[in-house]
Write a structure and sequence with these properties.
The complex is a heterodimer of chains A (232) and B (319).
Chain A lengths: L1 E9 L5 E10 L4 E5 L6 H8 L7 E6 L2 E2 L5 H8 L2 E4 L11 H11 L4 H14 L15 H13 L5 E5 L7 H16 L3 E5 L3 H7 L3 E5 L2 E5 L4 E2 L8
Helix pairs in contact in A: 3-4, 3-5
Chain B lengths: L35 H36 L2 E6 L11 H16 L4 E6 L2 H12 L12 E7 L4 H14 L4 E3 L2 H43 L1 H9 L4 H38 L14 H8 L1 H21 L4
Antiparallel strand pairs in B: 1-3, 1-4, 2-3
Helix pairs in contact in B: 1-5, 1-7, 2-4, 5-9, 7-9
Classes of the chains: A alpha/beta (232), B alpha+beta (319).
Chain lengths: 232, 319
């Protein structure tokens, strides 16, 4: 599903924010991505949702090397990826309904399909009464639910979520985590970037740990050191 | 659902405040973009100028056609009122010479029509230049014979001129070439100038539309990036900006062209010349008006293609 080989990323002429990243995520897997602030989680997520190309190394997504792909092919690949951004990135002039509908409209679904699916999902995330509301009139938690609904509406093959439960109370946070698990059971590969030890321990999925731009894996039983020894 | 029923805000479709509406199928808030009115105004002015320049080209084309078709195959034979020795010819002498000329030309197969101008005709020709106060009966006036040719051929004209000098050495054949060529050249230059002005207006409009589109894209950069990251194809994004550009330019072009048409109709009504005037008025044929009315469509098409190229070029810089 996702394969990173000796991947490095730097912005401009600055230092590498990600160094020699190696990992493989199997289809249908569920991982947490964690690490201290500034470790490079968002940069790694950006590479995974094809927001950037790596400065070095190979990235394969859905068994295809992204360096060999045209812009049109990359676009088609992005349609298979749902992203929940840390800062939500909702379009402020569009209603909650239209924000959630975007991925379906982009992939050319009919308006009747869009309406039934979006209405159902907004009801499910508890925003049925807010479908015509603009994002700025919604609370942080409600905006986050709109962002999550938008990420999952097109049933992506890969779901990337950057701190998706950060603004939510535990109850709604768990409910959304259960939604992610449900999607995972239906075959969606999931990577969730989070700081919450509680969430990670409660749901118990393997972790990708980033520190100083390097990646380590933890399978809940053992640390699998990928780059250097003795960090944990 | 019940857990959320106590939330403080409720929204209904009828409440505008805080309610989002997706206008015209746009994901981007293009209808709210700053500078839309300016673009409409600019395109309106450019369309007005293009319309005036194009109609000037058409009118000049008409003038050229009028002059060249009116004089192309015509010549005038002038029998001077004064003999080479300085003595004046009498009216009877002039009439006699005119009849000789008529007889000579009638025998020429290249002459299609022939007309000896009567005294009154000549008075009508010179009176606008001399004014009403001059008593024309007392002025020595030349005799004039107008002839229409089947074919304007230089050699044939030379032989006619030579034959005329055998009737009287000072009889002149005026082929109108010298001043007609000058005036047609001037008209041609003016036509070319108005066409160049039209092209410059077109180029300015393209630059203005491309600038406006780039500015819209900069204004909504984050939103466009988001659509791109969601997998929106370049065409999906381009279509929205293309449609936006077409709507704005169509509005501006319609305003400009309709204003131009009103001005042209006024010029045509108040500044028109009468039948047989040397310079025709600002008259456009129905087909020319239809061509001018197609101008908004053409401008919208240019805007659409300009927007498309601009957007695709900017999107091409995204990964």
């Amino acid at each position: 599903m996702i394969k990173f080989e000796h991947v490095g990323l730097r912005y401009g002429v600055g230092p590498e924010v990600l160094s020699d990243i190696n990992f493989t995520l199997e289809p249908g897997s569920f991982h947490f991505l964690t690490g201290p602030s500034g470790a490079g989680k968002t940069s790694l997520m950006t590479l995974m949702y094809l927001g950037r190309k790596p400065t070095r190394g190979l990235v394969s997504m859905f068994e295809q090397n992204i360096n060999d792909m045209s812009r049109a092919q990359l676009g088609a690949l992005r349609q298979k990826i749902g992203v929940v951004f840390q800062e939500f990135r909702l379009l402020p002039h569009l209603s909650a309904f239209d924000n959630v509908a975007l991925p379906m409209r982009i992939t050319g679904h009919s308006e009747s399909e869009v309406k039934s699916n979006v209405d159902e999902l907004l009801e499910w995330v508890g925003l049925g009464d807010y479908k015509n509301a603009l994002p700025l009139t919604l609370s942080g938690g409600q905006q986050q639910r709109v962002a999550i609904a938008r990420a999952v509406i097109a049933r992506p093959k890969l779901l990337l979520a950057d701190e998706p439960t950060g603004n939510l109370d535990d109850d709604i946070g768990f409910r959304l985590m259960h939604l992610f698990e449900q999607l995972n059971r239906m075959g969606t590969t999931i990577v969730i970037a989070t700081h919450s030890q509680y969430i990670m321990e409660r749901f118990g999925h393997p972790r990708l740990v980033l520190e100083d731009g390097r990646l380590y894996m933890h399978d809940n039983a053992n640390w699998v050191q990928k780059n250097i020894e003795g960090v944990y | 659902m019940k857990a959320f029923s106590l939330l403080p805000l409720t929204f209904s479709r009828n409440r505008k405040l805080g309610v989002g509406e997706r206008k015209g199928g746009y994901d981007l808030p293009l209808h709210k973009s700053a500078g839309s009115h300016f673009l409409v105004l600019l395109v309106g002015l450019m369309s007005f100028l293009a319309m005036m320049a194009l109609s000037a080209t058409m009118v000049l084309g008409g003038v050229t056609q009028h002059w060249s078709s009116g004089l192309k195959n015509k010549v005038t034979i002038e029998i001077p009122a004064q003999k080479p020795g300085g003595l004046l010819r009498s009216a009877a002498e002039i009439k006699e010479l005119a009849l000789s000329v008529e007889a000579l030309l009638k025998a020429n197969p290249n002459i299609k029509a022939l007309h000896i101008l009567e005294e009154n005709d000549i008075h009508d020709l010179v009176s606008p230049w001399l004014g009403d106060d001059v008593v024309l009966d007392e002025l020595p006036l030349p005799g004039l014979v107008s002839a229409e040719l089947h074919v304007r051929d230089k050699d044939k004209l030379e032989s006619i001129g030579k034959a005329l000098t055998e009737i009287a050495s000072d009889i002149r054949l005026d082929t109108h070439e010298s001043w007609l060529e000058d005036i047609l050249r001037l008209a041609g230059t003016l036509k070319l100038s108005t066409l160049i002005v039209t092209l410059i207006i077109g180029a300015t409009t393209i630059v203005a539309i491309a600038g406006a589109i780039r500015s819209r894209m900069a204004e909504h950069k984050a939103d466009i990036e988001l659509l791109h990251l969601m997998g929106a194809s370049d065409l999906y994004i381009t279509k929205q900006l293309q449609r936006h550009a077409v709507v704005l330019t169509l509005k501006g072009a319609l305003i400009g062209v309709l204003s131009g048409l009103v001005i042209l109709l006024m010029l045509s009504a108040f500044g028109g010349s009468g039948e047989g005037a040397t310079i025709p008025g600002m008259h456009l044929s129905a087909s020319q008006i239809i061509i001018l009315l197609l101008l908004p469509g053409l401008i919208a098409l240019i805007a659409s293609q300009t927007a498309r190229v601009t957007v695709l070029r900017v999107l091409g810089q995204m990964p």
